[in-house]
């Protein structure tokens, strides 16, 4: 691409030349663009961006922290494993799955690092490489759409947004759910004979850390980009990472006999072996798909303590290793059919996308549910999601995103307020929680699957303090739908995505009014304000969706260089 020489235009004008989409993945990340002017006629042609001089369009979502605190990112972080001064505990991968968590796994204690800081490094590197390798447009990239799993909580969206802003992206930062993005890049015009009747599509986005399955219902005469009715389900811990782990354990078992190394010794290096397994899996799958120059030999030159590992693997053996993990995708398929209230026989086409869809056995598993003649693994399945993000951003920049394009709110949102009385109740989307020493009542904020445009309207509810002389009150936002009675708060604590203590400044009497205003903004983020209305100056708290300059600087300052 030629360099843009007109540097007098504003930054936002420059961003209108290229609509940027980012797929921040669990194991690999990518960035794509669409020339906005070229899409004016409605024909979208997004392109991936080369992220290194070899032309690769995906970068490993991996960070290694040197002893001096400097980060190494992507392929270089992978290569550093073979250095003498390599420290396994300083290598971080799959940290996307830990965004938004209030309690982090022990691995982050080693360097006192946060997942949001690692996400910042990945997004910053993607931006830097895109600007310096291909989109050399002078002032740089500022605006983008970032893909997220369908069930990405508000807390996780907030962390993703913080990382993007710290990396140099400016608001508005748009989000699009991964299966919705993939659907946008599928052109239904090439599917003949279906334009005059209702069409039902399913997309199975089998990625690195999650499997998102969506059903899209289209009315006669409409296209995917016009008026989609999309229902989505996400299966956690179902993706390429889980396949890599299963493959890594198989490799360990083979190594114990071939190299005469104890299993316990190898298990101590499981993280590095998983990364080796991922690369060997990629090479093996390329052989399965008939790519020239590949073979079925698993070969790791420096497997353990300088010893090489090499053995042949048949397709049947590989399928036996990975199929139990791939079978898990049946669960979200069944769930989304039930949620969309549609029979499997009413699905016209099933599109399989994502890196893990390249495994032939993936289609075989889906074919156990649907006829094989309606299942299609689309060309460049890894690129579908990032291409769709670029299309979404192009629609946004051209002012073509209407209310009807907005997805439905994925989960119910409920307000939980501390109270004194013991109440137990079970109502759909309205949770009453009770614990002997810590009692809570709840009210629904946003109904599950409600149109996003309804959720975007500002609403105000009022609650009262449950007893005298309170100096503060806990306000929690719950996300998700639960069945049954929950007497143990800790049992569903991980479903909370925002917990705030509203400080009153002084003791207040019972039944003092607390006014809570809330809405969901255009970036699908919850904004929450609460204030004590009866006494003194209003006190306002804002949910995690509001990101301060201090938070951004704190992320950036962790890696000043």
Keywords:
six-stranded mixed β-sheet; globular; Nucleotidyltransferase, domain 5; five-stranded mixed β-sheet; 14 helices; alpha+beta; 561 residues; Substrate Binding Domain Of DNAk, Chain A, domain 1; 26 strands
CATH C-level label of the largest domain: Alpha Beta
* Largest β sheet strand count, sense and barrel closure: 6 strands, mixed
CATH architect. name of the largest domain: 2-Layer Sandwich
Shape: globular
Task: Indicate the mean pLDDT.
Answer: 75
Task: Give the structural class.
Answer: alpha+beta
Number of strands: 26
The CATH H-level homologous superfamily of the largest domain:
ATPase, nucleotide binding domain
Question: How would you describe this structure to a colleague?
Answer:
With 561 residues, the protein is an alpha+beta fold. It has three domains: 11-178, 2-Layer Sandwich (Nucleotidyltransferase, domain 5), CATH 3.30.420.40; 191-377, Nucleotidyltransferase, domain 5; 413-547, Substrate Binding Domain Of DNAk, Chain A, domain 1 (Sandwich). The protein is built from 14 helices and 26 strands. It has helices at residues 11-17, 75-79, 115-134, 154-166, 178-184, 240-258, 263-267, 270-288, 315-326, 330-339, 360-366, 384-397, 452-455, 549-557, and strands at residues 18-23, 28-35, 47-48, 59-60, 62-65, 71-73, 91-93, 145-148, 174-177, 199-206, 210-218, 229-236, 297-304, 307-312, 349-353, 375-377, 413-419, 425-427, 430-432, 439-446, 459-464, 470-479, 496-508, 513-520, 526-532, 541-542. Strands 1, 2, 3, 4, 8 and 9 form a six-stranded mixed sheet that branches. The longest helix is centred in the N-terminal third of the chain and has 20 residues, at 115-134. The chain is globular, with a radius of gyration of 25 Å. It starts with 10 loop residues before the first helix and ends with a helix. Mean pLDDT is 75; it is low at 1-15, 189-194, 407-412, 418-440, 481-496 and 536-545.
């Amino acid at each position: 691409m030629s360099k843009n020489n007109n540097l007098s235009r504003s930054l936002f004008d420059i961003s209108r030349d290229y609509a940027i989409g980012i797929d921040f993945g669990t194991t690999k990340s990518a960035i794509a663009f669409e020339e906005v002017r070229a899409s004016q006629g409605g024909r979208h042609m997004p392109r991936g961006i080369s992220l290194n001089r070899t032309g690769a369009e995906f970068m490993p979502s991996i960070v290694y922290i040197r002893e001096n605190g400097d980060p190494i990112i992507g392929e270089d972080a992978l290569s550093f494993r073979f250095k003498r001064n390599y420290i396994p505990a300083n290598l971080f991968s799959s940290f996307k799955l830990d965004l938004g968590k209030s309690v982090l796994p022990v691995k982050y204690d080693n360097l006192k690092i946060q997942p949001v800081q690692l996400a910042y490094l990945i997004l910053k590197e993607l931006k830097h490489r895109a600007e310096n390798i291909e989109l050399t447009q002078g002032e740089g990239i500022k605006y983008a759409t970032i893909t997220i799993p369908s069930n990405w909580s508000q807390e996780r969206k907030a962390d993703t947004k913080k990382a993007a802003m710290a990396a140099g992206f400016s608001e508005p930062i748009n989000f699009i759910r991964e299966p919705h993005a993939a659907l946008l890049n599928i052109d239904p015009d090439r599917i003949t004979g279906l334009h005059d009747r209702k069409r039902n599509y399913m997309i199975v986005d089998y990625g690195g850390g999650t499997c998102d399955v969506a059903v899209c219902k289209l009315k006669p005469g409409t296209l995917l980009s016009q008026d989609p009715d999309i229902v989505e389900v996400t299966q956690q811990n179902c993706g390429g990472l889980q396949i890599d782990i299963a493959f890594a354990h198989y490799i360990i078992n083979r190594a114990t006999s071939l190299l005469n190394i104890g299993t316990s010794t190898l298990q101590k290096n499981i993280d590095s072996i998983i990364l080796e397994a991922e690369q060997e899996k990629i090479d093996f799958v390329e052989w399965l798909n008939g790519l020239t120059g590949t073979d079925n030999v698993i070969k790791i030159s420096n497997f353990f303590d300088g010893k090489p590992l090499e053995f042949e693997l048949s397709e049947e053996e590989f399928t036996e290793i990975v199929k139990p993990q791939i079978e898990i995708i049946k669960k979200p398929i069944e769930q989304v059919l039930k949620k969309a209230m549609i029979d499997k026989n009413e699905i016209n086409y099933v599109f399989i996308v994502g890196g893990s869809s390249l495994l032939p056995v993936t289609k075989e598993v889906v074919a156990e549910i649907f006829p094989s003649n309606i299942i299609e693994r689309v060309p460049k399945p890894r690129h579908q999601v990032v291409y769709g993000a670029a299309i979404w951003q192009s629609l946004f920049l051209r002012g073509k995103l209407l209310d009807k394009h907005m997805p439905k709110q994925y989960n119910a949102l409920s307000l939980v307020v501390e109270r004194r009385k013991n109440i137990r109740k079970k109502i759909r989307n309205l949770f009453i929680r009770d614990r002997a020493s810590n009692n809570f009542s709840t009210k629904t904020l946003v109904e599950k699957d409600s149109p996003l445009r309804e959720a975007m309207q500002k609403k105000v509810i009022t609650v009262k303090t449950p007893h005298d002389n309170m100096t503060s009150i806990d306000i929690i936002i719950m996300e998700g739908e639960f069945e049954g009675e929950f007497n143990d708060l800790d049992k569903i604590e991980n479903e909370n995505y925002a917990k705030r203590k509203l400080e009153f400044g002084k003791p207040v009497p019972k039944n003092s009014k607390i006014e809570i205003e809330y809405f969901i903004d255009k970036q699908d983020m919850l904004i929450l304000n609460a204030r004590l209305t009866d006494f003194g100056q209003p006190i306002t708290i804002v949910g995690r969706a509001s990101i301060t300059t201090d938070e951004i600087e704190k992320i950036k300052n962790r890696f000043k260089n």
